[in-house]
Specification:
Distance between the termini: 63 Å
Number of helices: 11
Order of helices and strands: HHHEHEEHHHEEEHHHEHEEE
Largest sheet: 6 strands, antiparallel
CATH superfamily of the largest domain: CheC-like
CATH class of the largest domain: Alpha Beta
Number of domains: 3
Pfam family, one: FliM
Structural class: alpha+beta
CATH topology of the largest domain: Chemotaxis protein chec
Shape: elongated
Subcellular location: Bacterial flagellum basal body; Cell membrane
Protein name: Flagellar motor switch protein FliM
Family: Belongs to the FliM family.
Strand content: 15-25%
Main location: other
Oligomer: single chain
Number of strands: 10
Radius of gyration: 35 Å
Length: 332
């Protein structure tokens, strides 16, 4: 049985109304048995499940982290970008929700059809441009008067930043983002029909002391071929687990072909600087290594084996006697 859970105060008020005659128990029972009608707006069709929206949110949380790293390096100032929300709404509603004058970057994402829109609040866009030009990162909202130089700087910056979407999306699609249009007036931009469902991922953005929003608008037509990959079932598949042994096998083969230095410690000693200065050709230095004691064999600079010197094919060699205690036994 489904329904809302009443608080204790609501229960007390309901019992009081029944006892005083303000409410008839039979009418209340009749009301609860009636079928409840849920209003459905066909202009606001929900074409993505909550599960798929959550998957898109996770993907773009990764994208937000990548953008934070990218802009921090480019602007050399404090940058923080986080996902604020992810909703599916009609395209017309999204256009009405953004400023009349703003920064609009339109990208194609082949091999997927359609285009993705990246809307950047003018406060954020100007703060970025001011930092790139050597300023403190102050913002001036005069987006309707963008010069050609300002347009070029902004479009180049956001085009390079959107490259991070390729890495964020690599688990669901291998895309190649290409900037195809740069606009400032949403009314001049018609990507899809007004009633087309779009997913809007809103990113809270802080550049220095300036805050604003970056919105990623993804039409349904773009996501339609990869919708199955947005479900929990896809993420829980064992395909990845089945690939892991192969990846481990390849890694092991590559490691086995890697060259590592092997050195033999013949011994050491200490001499005074005076003795060192008096050394000449033919002098003999006595080491602290006893001839009957085994030598230390080092692998990659780390002591690993005990060995004894000898000859093999007329070359000086060392025979491994035993593994040293304390050596990495797991590395045999």
């Amino acid at each position: 049985m489904s329904g809302e859970v009443l608080s204790q105060s609501e229960i007390d008020a309901l019992l009081s109304a029944i006892s005083t005659g303000e409410m008839d128990a039979d009418e209340l029972k009749k009301e609860t048995t009636e079928k409840k009608v849920k209003v459905y707006d066909f202009k606001r069709a929900l074409r993505f499940s909550k599960d798929q929206i959550r998957s898109l949110t996770r993907i773009h949380e990764n994208f937000a982290r990548l953008l934070t790293t990218f802009f921090s390096a480019q602007l050399r100032t404090y940058v923080q970008i986080t996902v604020a929300s992810a909703d599916q709404i009609p395209y017309e509603e999204f256009i009405r929700s953004i400023p009349k004058m703003t920064i609009l970057n339109v990208f194609e994402v082949p091999p997927l059809d359609g285009r993705i829109l990246m809307e950047v609040n003018p406060n954020i866009a100007y703060a970025m441009m001011d930092r790139m030009m050597g300023g403190k990162g102050s913002s001036i909202n005069k987006v309707e008067n963008l010069t050609e130089i300002e347009t070029k700087i902004m479009s180049n910056t956001f085009e390079r930043s959107f490259e991070n979407l390729r890495e964020a999306w690599e688990t669901i699609a291998d895309i190649d983002p290409i900037l195809t249009d740069f606009e400032v007036n949403p009314q001049f931009l018609q990507m899809v029909s007004p009633n087309e469902t779009v997913v809007v991922i809103s990113l809270n953005t802080t550049i220095g002391e300036t805050t604003g929003m970056i919105n990623i608008c993804i039409p349904h037509v773009v996501l339609e071929p990869i919708i199955p990959k947005l479900s929990v079932h896809y993420w829980m598949q064992t395909d990845k687990k089945e690939r892991e042994p192969k990846e481990i096998e390849v890694l092991e083969k590559r490691l086995k072909r890697a060259d590592i230095p092997v050195s033999i410690d013949l011994g050491s000693t200490e001499i005074s600087i005076q003795d060192f200065l008096m050394l000449d050709v033919g002098d003999v230095i006595e080491l602290n290594q006893q001839i009957e004691h085994p030598l230390t064999i080092k692998i990659g600079g780390m002591p690993k084996f005990h060995g004894q010197p000898g000859l093999a094919n007329k070359k000086i060699a060392v025979q491994v006697l035993e593994i040293m205690k304390g050596g990495d036994d797991d590395g045999e």
